[in-house]
Amino acid sequence: MTGDPGGGLGHGPEAGLEAVSGLPFQAGAGPHAALPAVPPPTGTDDLPAADRTPGGTVDEPYLTEPPTGTDDLPAADRTPGGTVDEPYLTEVAWAGGVLRLRGRVPGVRVPAPDLVVLVRERDGERVLPVTAVPAHDDHGTAFEADVDPATALSGGALPHGVWDLHLSLESPDGSRVTALRPGAAAPVDGIPQRRFLPGSTPVTVYFDRYGELALDVGGEPRTAGDCEADTLSWNDRDEELMISGHLALPDAAAPVTAWLSLRESRSGRVYDAFVRVGTVDGLFTYTAAVPLTRSFIDDPLPRGQWDVHLVMGVSGIHREFRVLAPAEPFQHQVRRRFVPTRVTTTAAPDPLVITVGR
User: Fold this and answer.
1) What percent of the chain has pLDDT over 90?
2) Looking at the record's lineage, which domain of life comes first (predicted)?
3) Which of 158, 164, 93, 113 is nearest to 103 (CA)?
4) Residues 94 and 136 in one domain
5) Does one domain contain both 132 and 252?
6) Is residue 185 located within the same domain as residue 233?
7) How far is CA 75 from CA 34, 82, 85, 106, 126, in A?
8) Measured distance CA(257)–CA(163) in Å, rounded
9) What distance in Å separates the CA atoms of residue 53 and residue 49, rounded to the nearest whole number?
10) Dihedral sign of CA atoms 146, 148, 151, 154 in order
11) 3-state DSSP helix/strand/coil percent for the chain, to nearest 5?
């Protein structure tokens, strides 16, 4: 993608995040100021596919290679020396608050009425057409389209949620709708880019793990599956429960932030804990610190039964994973206001639940 100088968005709240080689590294959001150095887990087992349980892989917002399959047209319908391949993008960039898309339909000339960008609601039924402007040459059709998230819905802003961007075209081999992806011969920067709608609503354009273009409006955390906790351990110095685990993620150029969200379903309370992230042997690793006494901070995890979720953010896009318990449960007794308090957790294959004081 092209856009802001210096490589797309990264100029909002995450402007100061530092990326390193491979998957980015960044201490995540959360209420605690520091975390002792803790070695990340060393396990390298591959996680199952995203639709399996337990385990999972993040479904967004990372770039993968586009498909390479082609469809042949009759010789009379081909441009010189070509067949109609999958349409692909050559540029994705913000021009003010308007998303400008440029791409090509190789091997065929498509007239203006037969070429339309579709903004499709992922979790709904709304499909919004956007006119694409074609230009023809000996190699097929170049196209350009402008998507304005502030006016795309009958003059109003796109509602919160994820909107997929597809291309609808009529060609000699019939009608088809295809996802918009980068072309192998014309690489497009895969770093998510963010802008803000009127009213400060964030909107981020990105490629998901299938390499397909999408818009995330609102930035709310969205469920992305499960992830496994590898180990639970006790940090005696600061009296914290340490939770370490991993995810199988494709490479990403944008910095990643993360935090642990603990939720007490009976009361509706939410407690956020600090997470440190990194990479080991190509795996994304995380280590969270959950304070259980007042030796380090004034607000340790309160009494109750707490469901554990890992929340990850990239350029304003947030995805959350239900953390699954490791094989070995955790049991410990701490002193809170001089009163002995028992802390326990669940064990695999159940989701991770931390119980304080019961």
Assistant:
1) 47
2) Bacteria
3) 93
4) yes
5) no
6) no
7) 66, 9, 14, 14, 37
8) 23
9) 9
10) positive
11) 0, 50, 50
**Over 80: is that where the pLDDT of 76 sits?**
no
175 vs 320: CA distance, rounded Å? 37
Label residue 296 by pLDDT band (50, 70, 90). low
Structure tokens at 310: 């890992």
- Structure-token match 């608050």, residue found: 97
Is residue 56 one of the residues assigned to a domain? no
Q: How many helices (H) and strands (E) does the chain have?
A: 0, 22
Is 90 exceeded by the pLDDT of residue 240? yes
Q: Give, in degrees to the nearest 5, the angle at Cα 66 between 63 and 72.
A: 170
Peptide bond before residue 159 is cis, with ω within 30 degrees of 0: no
Say whether 272 sits in a helix, a strand or coil. strand
**pTM higher than 0.90:** no
CA 133 vs. chain centroid, Å, equals 30
Nearest to 313 by CA among 232, 202, 189: 202
Domain of residue 157 covers: 70-189
> Per the structure block, which two tokens stand in for 137?
């040459």
At residue 251, φ and ψ (nearest 5 deg) are -60, 145
- What is the rounded distance in angstroms from the CA atom of residue 319 to the CA atom of residue 61? 9
CA–CA separation, 221 and 320 (whole Å): 6
Question: What whole-number distance in Å separates Cα of residue 56 and Cα of residue 191?
Answer: 22
* Cβ contact 195:148 at 8 Å: no
148 CB-near residues (< 8 Å, 6+ apart): 97, 98, 99
In order, the DSSP letters of 321-353 are EEEEP-SS--EEEEEETTEEEEEEE--TTSBPE
CATH number of the domain bearing residue 349: 2.60.40
* Residues across the chain: 358
Contact in structure between 263 and 270 (CB atoms under 8 Å): yes
Residue 212 lies in a domain: no
Domain stop point among 147, 168, 189 = 189
Same domain, 139 and 227: no
Q: Check if the beta carbon of residue 302 is closer than 8 Å to that of residue 271.
A: yes
